[in-house]
């Protein structure tokens, strides 16, 4: 799987050398809205397939209502306390990306696992942000009116990578992985983020390194194997949710009108709102 992901990543990077800046943005947005959104479109079915979640067992309508309520709550928080919600969003996403990457390589459910995966995810974001400082400063400013300083990025990267290194050294007995290979993946991510602009760098990581493996795990969890039939079942079942998410996003863009400077902030706050419940669903299936 990882070899395919490396090939896909470099293929996509090679493809972008033929694209203009706006072409790269279009490719990034297509990746996020297709594979990216798709990997969160079967959350309700995943919840229904759990023995229980949060000690509860609810029916489809109840889960759907709860899900929509959490999305709306996330959106309202973004509106009312944008900076706090953004920090929370990046922290939760870091844990979520790390959990996806490490779940089969280290003993789960320990405090160490939560700390390690969060620091790993933060290191990925720190790499992405470090190589795209002007764009990150703009998007964060547009999102919550807070202007990050350039002096923030290098220490943020060094601290996260440093803590990751220390935790890896102390906890290496808990892992079943090749750390040289893991360091190589981080190098590949750094390379992608330094070559591609912010949105494309994020999209390549998010779709190839997070959403595809997550789709793989989810299909196995739901149908027991990866086959044409189970892929077809997954796609047909997620279609209506995927389509509703896209319609929701389109509706927001329609309501705010054609203000270009709001395009990325709206996309990221939309992602944040739908990410909050998704992270809890995946956390529950990883626990089973
Ligand atoms: C890239 C980026 C950001 C963070 C995005 C995040 C945190 C995305 C997480 C998505 C997830 C976890 C999706 C679901 O699986 C900021 C800080 C908004 C602004 C600068 C660019």
From TrEMBL:
Residues that span the membrane, as ranges: 64-92, 112-131, 152-171, 183-206, 239-256, 262-282
InterPro entries: Blh_diox (IPR022270)
Keyword Transmembrane helix attributed: yes
Entry's Gene Ontology molecular function annotations: beta-carotene 15,15'-dioxygenase activity; carotenoid dioxygenase activity; iron ion binding
GO CC terms in record: plasma membrane
Cofactors that this protein relies on: Fe(2+)
Reaction it catalyzes: all-trans-beta-carotene + O2 = 2 all-trans-retinal
Alphabetized UniProt keyword annotations: Cell membrane, Dioxygenase, Iron, Membrane, Metal-binding, Oxidoreductase, Transmembrane, Transmembrane helix
GO process annotations (BP): carotene catabolic process
Recorded topology in the membrane: Multi-pass membrane protein
Any Pfam family: BCD
Enzyme kind, highest EC tier: oxidoreductase
Location of this chain's protein in the cell: Cell membrane
Assigned EC number: 1.13.11.63
Function: Catalyzes the cleavage of beta-carotene at its central double bond (15,15') to yield two molecules of all-trans-retinal.
Family assignment from sequence similarity: Belongs to the Brp/Blh beta-carotene diooxygenase family.
Protein name: Probable beta-carotene 15,15'-dioxygenase
Organism of provenance: Leeuwenhoekiella nanhaiensis
